[in-house]
């Protein structure tokens, strides 16, 4: 749109509320009122012929495919990514994927599992692991007894600490292997079924 000359005055269109040059206001209003309408939901000016499409694509209620909650279409993506209680999230302790609604309860149990600290040979709760590692002196603390102290055999074997992503990698490789076997068996079964169908 060209810059408005400083000596020309503008008027506000009563239909679309835009500032229009005074010399063009009558022509603008005729075109504007005939072709545009204000959306009753968001207040945007949309072409009359696309008003229904605008409503359906932007404001019509839709149900979330994960939790069945009804909302406007334009916020559905944000809901699925950030707010849906059934969206899949990952446990910070075991990296297990589960619905967000179950995460707090799962992490309450999962965070209380223990792992052996390779520095001081004590079992530490997973939820306390990061704080412990920053404070751990590496000296076994024999002054405070614990039912979870390391047994002598484990102490002699050295650290048994699981690497953070080891479980996930093993699970991924196992899933890939099982999927490959299933595809192979399925194709063999299908091939035999096809061959027996052609004999008749």
Automatic annotation (TrEMBL):
The chain crosses the membrane at residues 172-190. A zinc finger (TRAF-type) spans 61-94. Keywords: Membrane, Metal-binding, Transmembrane, Transmembrane helix, Zinc, Zinc-finger. Residues 61-94 form the TRAF-type domain. InterPro entries: Innate_Immune_Apopt_Reg (IPR051986), Znf_RING/FYVE/PHD (IPR013083), Znf_TRAF (IPR001293). Residues 137-164 are annotated as: Disordered. Residues 148-164 have a biased composition (Basic and acidic residues). Gene3D superfamilies: Zinc/RING finger domain, C3HC4 (zinc finger). The keyword Transmembrane applies. It comes from the Eukaryota. This is TRAF-type domain-containing protein.
